[in-house]
Known about the structure:
Radius of gyration: 21 Å
Distance between the termini: 69 Å
Oligomer: single chain
Number of helices: 11
Number of strands: 0
Largest sheet: none
Amino acid sequence: xxxxxxxxxxVPPLERRIREWHSSRELFTVExxxxxxxxxxxxxxxEMLATDGSYxxxxxELLRARRDALTTHYRIDVALCYVYLNExxxxxxxxxxxxxxxxxxxxxxxxxxxxxxxxxxxxxxxxLAAATNASRYKPHYAEAAYIRAAALHGLGRDDExxxxxxxxxxxxPAHARARR
Length: 180
């Protein structure tokens, strides 16, 4: 009978947690309501907003996460770099990527975001170097190979650029930009 009483008391919190875990977005929103300083929940919520294209909302969440974090967190800066890149705020993108790489220099996503920002700025040499670093830390990275190809093309090294496009397609045959 005592076991049943414990089970009866535990059901409502369990049901509440099941509802909270219905979606990741709901879970992180609930976690932030409980403790607004949970930087990791803000970071994850911000990254989810980016996948929906809500870059200004994501930026606000990520900046709050950076403010609330007790230490630096390179993932926040990588996510901010992605936001700034998609908003064509290239100086801010480069700055955020550099902050992330200063803390964690082996993050291939940060390197590929930095390469993309350099490419959009017209700094093909820097884009090539950053994309090469991304490939070093994540071999068979189609996006890094594609950005390398674009940088090589910008440098007039078209034979190498074609080889890099083929490499990107070898890694990901559905890579949309490489297929063009």
